[in-house]
Amino acid sequence: MSQLQNYDATCRLAQEIAENIQERNRQQRTGGNPAKINMTLRASLQKLKQNIAQLREGLLRASSSRRLMQSEADRRQNLIDDLLTREKQLNATFKGEITEAEPARSTLMAGGAGASGGVAANPWLINESEDTKGLSFGEIKQQQQRVIEAQDAGLEALAAVISRQKIMGQEIGNELDEQNEIIDDITHLVDKTDDRIRNETRRVKLVETKSASCGESYAVLLIATDLIRFVWHSF
């Protein structure tokens, strides 16, 4: 039995239990003997509990195998939770702990007659997307598998992009390290050139001092010689 059929049967069973409880209570009020119907109710309540457990297990398997979208799994879990609440209410009513009026069929059973006399839609299929309407369970499973594969492919593409960005980041870091080394070399050369300029400046000043005693021609010669030497060593 499929999950849909199991849910439909469980809702119908809950409705039957509610009707049998009402009949049992009627017999008690009229002095009848409800022993037989009580036995039937106990068996039905046990069957209802088993059906709900099977629905929970089936939903768990479908969710763990990724056959259902998370939103659809959550919606079906809410339906099962409603059945659990209904099962507790029916047990309490059977034991005489609470009394309640007969619930509307449209809220208890899939495909049953509603208050308007029409056929109620099975809530297990409510909010089904247009993409899955009219598809069999196998076709829906294949469609969801394709969606999962597309998502996996997207994740792999994203991982590849992140990997490339990581490599680019590493290459940029290496390039920055090389540029920093070049800057350090240039700074070192500038410092050496500054030192040499300062030394030559001191020598020029010394030559100027000597020129006062040795004559202008000699001073000019020394200056020219020093400048030529400085320029030569600078290259």
From TrEMBL:
Gene3D superfamilies, per database record: 1.20.5.110
Residues spanning the membrane: none
Domain T-SNARE coiled-coil homology: 145-207
Translocase listed as a keyword: no
Compartment(s): Membrane
Keywords: Coiled coil, Membrane, Phosphoprotein, Transmembrane, Transmembrane helix, Transport, Ubl conjugation
One term under GO cellular component: late endosome
Main location: membrane
Recorded GO MF terms: SNAP receptor activity; SNARE binding
GO BP of this protein: intracellular protein transport; vesicle docking; vesicle fusion
Coiled coil spans: 4-65
UniProt topology in membrane: Single-pass type IV membrane protein
Function: Vesicle trafficking protein that functions in the early secretory pathway, possibly by mediating retrograde transport from cis-Golgi membranes to the ER.
The family this protein is said to belong to: Belongs to the syntaxin family.
Protein name: Syntaxin-8
Organism expressing this protein natively: Salarias fasciatus
